Amino acid sequence: MPGKLSYLAFIMKKFFKILFPTALIGMMFACEAELAPITIKPDPVFDKTGLYTVNTISIYDEEETVVNISRIYGLSKELDLTIGVDETLLTEYNNLNGTNYQLMPAEYYDFPSTIKLDKTDKEVELPVVIKPRELAANGISTANNYVLPLSLNASSVEVEDKGSAAQVLLIPNIVEPTFTVKVPEENFSLSFIRDVLLPQTVEIEATSNFTTIDAGKVTYEADAASVSVYNEANGVDYQLLSSEYYTVNDGVLDSETMNYKTSITFNCGNMDSDDIFLLPLVMSSDVYQTQQKEPIYVLVQLNTLKMWVAGAEQVVVNKTGNGKISVAMNAPISDNQPVKLTVDNSLIESYNTENGTSFIPFEPSNVSVSTESITAGEMEVNVAYQIDLTSMSFDGIEPYLFALKLDESELFEGTQVENNVIYIQPFRTLAGDYEKEVWGEEKSDRVSAPAIYLAGENGWPASQSDKAHKYCINYNKNWSGGVIHFNILDEFVEGYSDRKKLGDFVDRANERNGQGYDQVVDNGSWVDMKTGVVHFDLKVVDNKYSGEGGFPIQYNFTPSF
After folding, report:
1. Cα torsion 426, 432, 435, 437: sign
2. Predicted local distance difference test score (pLDDT) of residue 353
3. DSSP code of 163?
4. Residue 472 and residue 520: Cα distance in Å, rounded?
5. Are residues 299 and 184 part of one domain?
6. Nearest to 452, CA basis, from 485, 426, 477
7. What is the extent of the structural domain holding 243?
8. Residue 397: which CATH number?
9. Cβ-based neighbour number of residue 142 at 10 Å
10. Residue 135 carries which DSSP code?
């Protein structure tokens, strides 16, 4: 047995010596053999597939829609594609969806039968022209039942079969040219002064779904029947405004917003009656469709010219020294109307009596008021006034007040004045929000809120010092550890008659029996009594910044209140 096994091993050894070189040679020949080339076929498809709606308007002769043809593969190959109408697509769609769409006749559309993609083109536009005016001639419903089925039929090179992705069914959605009128929430109300022949205008807005508008074929007309409906609903007895008193102008379209504005000019100064007239307006056209949920009402009345001061009989607190007062009238007139407001402190006593107050009349010489005019054709003007606050103390307890009264001697004869007095309470304060300007060095986390506060008010700590501090600022994000109290001193900065020094600075004046926490040094702060600008220039010496002589607070605060 051992002899037989040795012979067998010898034979196997010889076999593998022959087999291995043969296998190696086979592998070498296999590596040298040419592999079959990989062919990448172009894959053109429609970006829009299935049933695709083409929106258009019935009055247009032509409407172009674009169907994109794109590919992912085969960019190195130029493609000449053939596009055709495939009625079988429509038949299949109808059978599958239970519809009864009809093949669009050839005279209602136009598209190129071939289109090219260059080697570098990923997509190309296929323009398809639909002819809505011709389609709509047989009726809108008939026109919208036509379908144009398109397919990519052939190519100059072999392409992948993309099936339904190479098919699209275009269906028109043809609508009538339509205006939709915007009805305002409130009625227009116009007041005219007798024999003042100054026109007034209202503007009505609508939206359109088309741009080729013939303004001569759409207008607004009076809906006489709506007058009685309005009267009954509102318990009034208005009369229909005669057409001789108004003119409907041609509308103007903004093609970007599709907003269509129409102005209506009224000239009613020569009406005989003092009654209130009503004009219910509805859009009208023999060519275009109009949608309007209800009439737009314009109320017109002859009236006595009236003027008033806006906010009259109220007390306006003024902290800045500058203000504006609106004076208005109920109708425009053909001339400029002078407007003059004067200080009349004789009214303060009666105001105090009627309201249980104790205001002190403010010095009129410290108040200046501009003289204005309501421009012809306008109905309002702003009158500016300025208050010289320099004589007032900051946050004083004196309750000053002055009255501004409309000077009737400047008004046209017959003008009826209503609510002609407004009361102004000047109040000078250092407390409020400011615009911050860093003029020196700024440390992190300092003066997080550019504001000055009244100490002891609105949650800010009261002064526990014998200085009885009135103001404080927050110089740290954590107010409890970063509040500095201070006062305005009765001392001016040398060389500046308008700058009063700020002093009595104490870091956390509610600490250590009112003596403060960290030392405040190098104070050169002041407030400008005319401008209200507050200039901070000081240092607070704490443990962290003691080696630097303290951290600086160096800002200009400009009032924003």
Report:
1. positive
2. 96
3. G
4. 14
5. yes
6. 485
7. 180-303
8. 2.60.40.1510
9. 13
10. H
Which structure tokens are listed for 187?
A: 């009625």
Round to whole Å and give the CA distance between 400 and 361: 6
Last residue of a domain, one of 393, 426, 459: 426
Cα-Cα-Cα-Cα dihedral sign, residues 88, 91, 97, 103 = positive
Cα–Cα–Cα angle for 411, 413, 419, nearest 5°? 50
- Which secondary structure element, helix H or strand E, spans residue 259, and what is its range? strand 259-266
**3-class DSSP assignment, residue 358:** coil
Q: What is the pLDDT of residues 170-188, one digit of tens each?
A: 999 999 999 999 999 999 9
What's the Rg (C-alpha) of the chain? Answer: 44
At residue 183, the 3 state secondary structure works out as: coil
Which of 298, 302, 301 shows the shortest CA–CA distance to 223?
Answer: 298
Measure the CA–CA gap between 278 and 238, rounded to whole angstroms.
6
Question: Which residue in this structure is represented by tokens 């190479």?
Answer: 166
Give the dihedral sign, CA 234/238/242/245.
Answer: negative
Beta-carbon neighbour count of residue 74 at 10 Å? 21
User: Which amino acid, residue 290?
Assistant: T
Q: Are 210 and 57 a contacting pair, CB within 8 Å?
A: yes
The owner of tokens 């907003």 is: 259
Give yes or no for a contact between 253 and 207, defined as CB atoms under 8 angstroms apart: no
Q: What is the dihedral of CA 272, 274, 280, 283, to 10 degrees?
A: 40
Say how many CA atoms lie within 13 Å of 377 toward its Cβ.
Answer: 4
Distance in Å from the first CA to the final CA of the chain: 118
Say yes or no: 382 and 494 in one domain.
no
The rounded average pLDDT for each run of 10 residues, N- to C-terminus, in the chain (561 residues) is 43 47 49 59 90 94 93 86 95 96 96 92 94 93 96 88 91 96 96 87 96 95 97 96 96 95 94 92 96 97 90 87 92 90 95 95 96 93 93 87 93 87 94 91 69 91 89 73 89 94 91 84 93 93 84 90 70
Helix (H) or strand (E) holding 22: helix 2-32
Please check whether residues 246 and 280 belong to one and the same domain: yes
Report the amino acid identity of residue 481.
G
Chain centroid to Cα 481, Å, comes to 42
What's the token pair of residue 104?
Answer: 């669009």
**Spatial CB neighbours of 214, under 8 Å, sequence gap ≥ 6:** 287
Q: How far apart are CA 370 and CA 381, in angstroms?
A: 11
pLDDT in tens, 507-545: 988 788 778 888 999 999 999 988 899 999 999 998 888
Domain assignment of residue 29, yes or no: no
Q: What is the pTM of this model?
A: 0.59
Given a contact cutoff of 8 angstroms between Cβ atoms, the answer to whether 389 and 318 are in contact is no
Question: Does residue 422 contact residue 309 with C-beta atoms inside 8 Å?
Answer: yes
Same domain, 130 and 84: yes
Do both 298 and 315 map to the same domain?
A: no
CA–CA distance from 415 to each of 306, 308, 331 (Å)? 6, 10, 11
